[in-house]
From TrEMBL:
Alphabetical list of Gene3D superfamilies matching this protein: Sodium/glucose cotransporter
Cellular compartment(s): Cell inner membrane; Cell membrane
Gene Ontology annotations for the cellular component aspect, listed alphabetically: plasma membrane
Protein name in UniProt: Sodium/proline symporter
Gene that specifies this protein: putP
């Protein structure tokens, strides 16, 4: 491992910690400042924070790995995500920003739901907080798996002997850096680091394909990949397979770590600007990830390169094709993708544990300083649980992400959409949708129907979960409606 590579990573780590210290000095020392940055994010910061916290290590590991292994047919996921993200900015973002402030100045999604449906407020806060903490612990673990894979692949034999495997040491280093800046700087630190990390990720995903095609001694041709239908969007695809891929986009409406960014934008009028910035960033980044996977497969076959784990193709190419200093930058891009999502998930989990458990049941009159400290402790607790889950080196980033993404999308997606747009929804309907969505996803995974369904390929669990949640909300709201609107959406 070249000293320049390690130096580039060291600069990145110092920058992240520096942003954490800056945010700690600037952010108000109260819950609103720690958990939502006082609703002061500029459009550019909110946009890239939403994008970077969304994509995670999946963007540089899971998606390129899937394209590397199976070809362009896996790009249906990227197509679905692009459409879903655009609709999220159009439908959810402006309404959530306005309503969370108008309805009791809610700091968390569970608080907003409680304020929107006061008759079922406590039950909604508890159930939604349990779902958030549970699924985010798994989601956080997926990011840590990405960090472990980076260190195990790129730094094998270089890291000091600590009695831990390179994989586990990578997990601890990744989690440690994230914990420091998240615990001290709160939401502002997470958002500012997301902005920087989002820029690094996008540049890396533009540079790598260009180097593969034009900057290597052996120019690669995608058409040279012998796999039949490698560049086809439909070769080998089934209707269920395409539906499963495209419906990843449904998950956006229910991802707390993404939609909380909408709540923190400084003005409702700035939401469209932020949306355009985020979508431009997202299209460029997703296209880059798709091309990395495809061109990486072409390069590997043209040069007789054996890649044992497809999800490490970005790491392998970064090490082979670039100057050591640039390699360090590319590794930093991968860590940026991982850390931006972990930090966001930790903070949202922390906010639920603090506001929807501690302050609701244990210390209703807790001071602002006490609440902030409990929030920091909660960050550490969720991170510790994520480390335990991620300890299995055989874990797949895409698999962990897909399960958590479906859980949130089905549980909260229909609930958030209808809560923001449908005045006839009731608190009982909200509870029914929340429980049904999460329960159907969990059951679908447990039965293995996401892997094999009706004798054919599996159906992604978000499809039945989202549909069941939507139906439960409409039916139960119709049965429990009293003829009055609980709160005007």
């Amino acid at each position: 491992m070249n000293a320049l590579t390690l130096g580039s990573l060291a600069v990145y780590f110092v920058l992240m910690l520096g942003i954490g210290v800056y945010a700690w000095r600037k952010t108000a020392k109260d819950s609103s400042g720690y958990l939502l940055a006082g609703r002061s994010l500029t459009p550019s910061v909110a946009a890239l924070s939403a994008g970077a916290s969304d994509m995670s290590g999946w963007l540089l590991l899971g998606l390129p790995g899937a394209l590397f292994a199976s070809g362009l047919v896996e790009a249906w996921i990227a197509i679905g995500l692009t459409v879903g993200a655009a609709l999220n900015w159009i439908i959810v973002a402006p309404r959530l920003r306005e309503q969370t402030e108008r309805l009791g100045d809610a700091l968390t999604i569970p608080q907003f739901l409680a304020n929107r449906f006061p008759d079922s407020g406590t039950l909604l806060r508890v159930i939604s907080a349990v779902i958030i903490v549970g699924f985010f612990t798994v989601y956080t673990a997926s990011g840590m798996v990405g960090g472990g894979k980076l260190f195990a692949t790129a730094f094998a034999g270089v890291l000091p002997d600590t009695g831990l495997s390179d994989y586990m040491l990578g997990i601890f280093i990744t989690a440690g850096i994230v914990l420091v800046y998240t615990m001290i700087g709160g939401f502002l630190a997470v958002s500012l680091t997301d902005f920087v990390q989002g820029m690094i990720m996008m540049v890396a995903l533009v540079v790598m394909p260009l180097v593969i095609f034009f900057g290597t001694e052996t120019a690669v041709q995608l058409s040279a990949v012998p796999q039949e239908g490698f560049l086809s969007l439909t070769q080998g695809a089934t209707a269920i397979g395409i539906i499963s891929a495209v419906t990843w986009g449904l998950g956006y409406f229910g991802q707390p770590h993404i939609i909380v960014r909408f709540m923190a934008i400084d003005k409702v009028e700035n939401v469209p600007i932020a949306g355009w910035i985020c979508m431009i960033w997202m299209v460029i980044s997703l296209a880059g990830a798709v091309v990395v996977g495809l061109s990486g497969r072409a390069y590997a076959q043209a040069n007789g390169l054996v890649v044992e784990d497809p999800e490490t193709i970005f790491i392998v190419l970064a090490n082979l094709l670039f100057h050591p200093a640039v390699t360090g930058f590319l590794y930093a891009a991968l860590l940026a993708a991982i850390m931006s999502t972990i930090s966001s998930q930790l903070l949202v989990s922390s906010s639920s544990l603090t506001e929807d458990f501690y302050r609701l049941f244990l210390r209703r009159n807790a001071s602002e300083a006490e609440a902030v400290n409990i929030g920091r402790l909660s960050v550490a607790l969720v991170a510790s649980a994520g480390i335990v889950i991620a300890a299995d080196p055989e874990s797949q980033v895409l698999g962990l992400v897909s399960n958590a993404w479906a859980g949130f999308g089905a549980a909260f997606g229909p609930l958030i959409l209808l809560a923001l747009t449908w005045n006839r929804m009731t608190g009982a309907g909200a509870v029914a949708g929340l429980v049904t969505g999460a329960g159907v996803v969990a059951a679908w995974i447990a039965l293995g129907w996401n892997k094999a369904f009706l004798g054919g390929p599996g159906l992604y669990e978000i499809v039945p979960g989202f549909a069941a949640s939507l139906l439960a909300i409409v039916v139960v709201s119709g049965m429990t409606r009293t003829g009055r609107e609980e709160v005007k959406a």
